[in-house]
Design a protein that fits this description.
Residues 4-229 form the ABC transporter domain. The protein is an alpha/beta fold. It is built from 10 helices and 14 strands. It binds adenosine-5'-triphosphate (ATP). Residues 13, 16, 18, 36, 38-44, 83, 187 line the site of adenosine-5'-triphosphate.
Length: 297
């Protein structure tokens, strides 16, 4: 069953495209990633779903209810983390979270303390004294506190250090195990690969693809940088090399394919150092459909 149904949603800002004809469904119990570079339209989509801004055309339903006319009812069952969290600066963290609990008519103090401990968030601190990352943590606890059926999070891990990111992924996994439907945006490919069942890729306001993570991994691209003595004399002779560039002592290769094949090929190369990284999202999009199994339109 689809919990979120988005149908040709379009938002124009005074003629500028925010999003155009965005359509996708998020199924019950699914963890769904929404990925795209800065300015792609992730926040616009999420803010429209939450009825902070009105769609220019198209429609969407959450829990089978219309996002515009039945927003109030929908919001009761959503945990929402905006991309930037604005709070009452003078409040202490625990005051703010207690206020939230009152709003949702729940008393989950134990859950608040537990989540704060896991995220290393000091409940006694004043909001105005918190860093961007700590504000994000407040937002995460706030989104989770009333045990919503659906979580909608806009770039939840921005500002969190890697340790906290992992804790956050664990919390998400526990929510998923409970049956919570999760929808979150990100511009980090590895993050959605690690946590999601499916992902929608958005670029310039339009959905480029909706993919299972399995397909995404099959088509994934890596940047491999080798440091060696004479990089201009080396060429990797395997299928899947999309681009090779030499910068000084470094040979940079964009590779799409089986990593074992690549490692076998590298065995014959006499390199001093190697770095295997995730490419930029631009490179991912540029080369995404060069192999089979691509677009599901
Ligand atoms: N209030 C606004 N007025 C005018 N244009 C806007 C407004 N908000 C967003 N836009 C434009 O809409 C497009 C989509 O922006 P949006 O913020 O949704 O992208 P995003 O994917 O969330 O990016 P980011 O990760 O940078 O937040 C961009 O071109 C942006 O400039």
């Amino acid at each position: 069953m689809a919990i979120v149904e988005v149908n040709k949603l379009t938002k124009l800002y005074k003629g500028n495209v925010g999003i155009k004809n965005v359509s996708f469904d998020v199924n019950e119990g699914e963890t769904f990633g929404f990925i795209g570079p800065n300015g792609a339209g992730k926040s616009t989509t999420i803010r429209t779903l939450f009825n902070f801004i009105y769609p220019t055309s198209g429609s969407a339903k959450i829990f089978g209810k219309d996002i515009v006319t039945e927003s109030k009812e929908i919001r009761k069952h959503i945990g929402y983390l905006p991309s930037e969290v604005h709070y009452y600066e003078n409040m202490k963290v625990e005051e703010l979270l207690s206020y939230s609990m009152k709003f949702y008519k729940v008393n989950n103090t134990k859950r608040m303390i537990e989540l704060a401990e896991r995220l290393d968030l000091d409940l006694k601190r004043k909001i105005e004294d918190l860093s961007f990352g700590n504000r994000k943590k407040v937002g995460i606890v706030q989104a989770l506190i009333h045990e919503p059926k659906l979580l909608i999070m806009d770039e939840p891990t921005g500002g969190l250090d890697p340790l906290m990111q992992n804790e956050f992924y664990e919390i998400l996994a526990e929510e998923k195990a409970k049956g919570t439907t999760i929808f979150f945006s990100s511009h980090i490919l590895s993050e959605v690969q690690q946590t999601c069942d499916r992902v929608a890729i958005i670029k310039d306001g339009e959905i480029v693809a909706v993919e299972t993570i399995e397909n995404l991994i099959k088509n994934s691209v890596k940047t491999v940088t080798l440091t060696l003595k004479e990089p201009e004399n080396i060429s990797l002779e395997i299928e899947g090399v999309l681009k090779e560039e030499v910068h000084g002592q470094r040979l940079s290769v964009l590779y799409q394919g089986n990593m074992k094949h690549l490692l076998n090929e590298l065995n014959r190369v006499d390199f001093d150092d190697i770095l295997i990284e995730e490419p930029s999202l631009e490179d991912v999009f540029l080369h995404y459909y060069e192999k089979d199994g691509g677009l599901e339109s």
